[in-house]
Fold each of these.
Amino acid sequence: MARTTIGIVLNGVTGRMGYRQHLVRSLLAIREQGGLPLRDGTRLWPELVLVGRSETKLREIADRHGLTEWTTDLNAGLARPDVQIYFDSQVTAQREKALRLAIEAGKHIYTEKPTAEDLSGAVELARLADAAGIKHGVVQDKLFLPGLRKLDRLVRGGFFGRILSIRGEFGYWVFEGDWQPAQRPSWNYRAADGGGIVVDMFPHWHYVLEQIFGQVNAVTAHVSTLIPTRWDEAGEPYEATADDAAYGIFEIDRAGQSSPIVAQINSSWGVRVYRDELVEFQVDGTEGSAVAGLRNCRIQHRSTTPKPVWNPDLPATEDFRSQWQVVPDNEEFDNGFKAQWELFLRHVVEDEPYSWDLWAGARGVQLAELGLRSAREGRRIEIPELQAEPSK
Ligand SMILES: NC(=O)c1ccc[n+]([C@@H]2O[C@H](COP(=O)([O-])OP(=O)(O)OC[C@H]3O[C@@H](n4cnc5c(N)ncnc54)[C@H](O)[C@@H]3O)[C@@H](O)[C@H]2O)c1
């Protein structure tokens, strides 16, 4: 079958997300299926150029996967005329300057979140990208997870009636690193290196809430550093200067509802899991409720809602969990990162609409920034709309 190639520079492939989700599970998986089928019957074949700091690591990854193109010189990668897209999954603190270089080089941009360390940087990137006339996209993988797709389907189908409230619980125990190695990189726990659970997770909560329920208009947050000392990759102790727990209240304006929906989301790397999944959202509505995780979603309709009676003198008489119904898949769910890569590639080559762009990314950074300010100042903060003025 005829195929066209598209050159993609991948920066950050030695990292957790870059290697596993973006290289192996997305782009190599697209190659394994023979390329991405296009409208005209041809296939799009991603040609990959790996970029990073360590020649040894890049060569090792390239060899392992039969790839031949890699460089430790980002500018050299960006100067290649056969490259159309720049992808970034570096540590957050390195992202903005690399994205600026790629925009200057006239490449389309696809990037991990958060797009920048602060709002002004994130907005400037979006403006520069628009002014350069390039296409841009930001990873919003949670939207493509089966559990949240099913939740979105319930919302769009009108299952809930009037939506009353949302509660989210995200987290697990991240080992300190002394007697068992930590399962997340140490930069996540140092503020100066772009770490912190608010900067990491609020961008996710922003697009989940905005895309499924409505515009997020206010935030109130409390943040903590629960574990003050951790041990790094070399086994050395360091001070955890970033927040590792955040308790947020988000107010959402939803079309057709007269008062805002309140979403409370706990995010923590200092909790032990007594849940079915590492993140779960419970949505309660007048007509029914749902609990959605990464993969599964369960519902209870008003017609099957039991009538519990509060009586602490007696043991619970109902098995509450068994009273919920499983929402069926009804479709095949591919890896969420791959699904979004495919949409972005179609946006670039076939001009398909694509809304998860640097502006959406900037709104996520804005929520993180205002969430941190809310915690610092001990008050609720309203979220202004971002202005998409052209770059000066
Ligand atoms: N979408 C998601 O669900 C999700 C999940 C986790 C992380 N992320 C984002 O992905 C990005 C990478 O996170 P990760 O967990 O893969 O991190 P990681 O530490 O595993 O990987 C970081 C990558 O950046 C490179 N790098 C470049 N300059 C660096 C520097 N000065 N110091 C250290 N590393 C440097 C590393 O070599 C490596 O390739 C972050 O921005 C993070 O917010 C997204």
Amino acid sequence: MASTTGSDRARAALSYLRRKISSGEWPLGERIPIEPELAEQMGVGRSTVREAVRSLASMGMLETAPGRGTFVRSATPTSSLLDEFLADFSLEEILSYRRALEVEAAQQAALHRSDEDIEALELATVEEVGCSRCPVLSLGDSGAGAFDSRFHRLIFDAAKNRLLSSLYAGINDQLRTPQHRGRLANVATSAEMERDHHRVLDAIKRRDFIDAVHAMVDHVDHDVVIVNEQQEVVPPLFRTPEQQQRMDDVREGRPATA
Ligand SMILES: [Zn+2]
């Protein structure tokens, strides 16, 4: 049955390309190889490649810019339906929801991570150290990678929950839109980011979901924040000095002060 073979090939081509993207081999913002090259790599016809690229474009993972090539736009499928839905909410609401997703992903990752996930996370930690890619490239930078850190994306992969991943990608897309981008800042230094990432990774590695949750709660607190017109940080949550002290104790691994 020729049609079955054809659709099998199309499916295989689609998952081949998708894997390249989700694994980070083709990072966000990168131009993917041209059609004939891909056809040769996969051993399929150019029309099969074109069809797979079109499918991934409709999922929001690839974007073809006429005359320039095809670029990686999202590591997970996003939907314009979700974009439209999220557009009705305030930045405060979106960030709060994003924090919830990050914390749940960290917890799930601690429970479901594979050894391959840990390897990929360790690599991302090393590669993203010292640069401000977590999760905002740099303030005012409108690059495709803004609000995207491979480390964070891989935690969602390790969580093995496609819905969490898709929602996270959709949220990050929303943060990149012009009405939100200018109001966001990343307040942590790269040293703080590095320390935070190691704590999260260490907990996930040990399969300690309680530590993973604590480490991520602490991290997302200064991950992406809102700044007002005077460029002052608006804290995501108001905490009394005593409450902040308890957070700091947990972060430093000190026994909680009474
Ligand atoms: Zn981070």
